[in-house]
Amino acid sequence: AKRTVALIEKDGYPDSVYMNAARIFQGIRAEKSKDKMLVRYGNNSESPLLAFKDEHSRRVSYELAFSALKYQDLLEEILLDSGVYPCQSIPDELTSLLVVMLYDLQDQKFEARKSFDEEEPVEEVKEIGHYLYSYKTKLAAALARCRIKYDALSIEHFVPETIWKQEQRVSALPLCVWINTFKTSLEDVISDLETKGLTKVESVSDFDHYTYAMDRHCHDVLVFPSSLKEELLNLDLFADCKLLLQ
Fold first, then answer.
1. Exposure pattern of 97-129 as b/e (b: 16+ CB <10 Å)?
2. What DSSP designation does 241 have?
3. What is the domain count for the chain?
4. Which GO terms describe its molecular function (predicted)?
5. What is the pLDDT of residues 193-239, one digit of tens each?
6. pTM of this prediction?
7. Structural domain span for residue 144
8. Are residues 76 and 22 part of one domain?
9. How far apart are alpha carbons 228 and 246 in whole angstroms?
10. Pairing outcome for strands 199-201 and 211-214
11. Closest-CA residue to 110 (of 140, 148, 131)
12. Rounded mean pLDDT of the chain?
């Protein structure tokens, strides 16, 4: 009855997130030698980022860019194997956007993303989105062939084992959160968390899913189970910078 925090569904992002993620990815992508460069990226790494709507938009833009980086080789192979790339109507300057949006499309199981009415659409995102979705069957088939080729149960198995183990360890660590005492108080934060169904416990060893604990040394720090990360970061307490993730 207390579990009132809504789950965050994967249904795409606003256009500005894709554009910013593509520009971030363009600056961090792995460079390849000319003899191995089958997918070409334009030279637009100096393009400025769009203004982030809020901290959530900034976070998901960077997460999307680094996810594309982690699976860059796989995403490029899917584009080539499916015949989706190269495409004369898509210039090299939009290849980063193509890769970023392909990662998100497969993450949504090749389902269409929802539209966001609260901001002005970006024509490049609309164009790339429609192009990828029109080839969703070929893209899904190419991903399936890659899984068979590399004997991978899921996309997560395409990363090196050392990175996968590191991510597993990091994802299991409790989340430490600072209370911004310039904007709120411990009492108000606790009251807000309790209205959302979270219960205070004595220590991390007592964690269930919807629980939290006080740090024993810092009285303005709360600790949460790692499984609550997505739900926590979408609370108003984080959007209003009343809580800050360590």
1. bbbbbbbbbbeeebeebeeeeeeeebebbeebb
2. T
3. 2
4. methyltransferase activity
5. 999 999 999 988 888 889 999 998 888 999 999 888 888 888 889 88
6. 0.70
7. 15-159
8. yes
9. 14
10. parallel
11. 140
12. 87
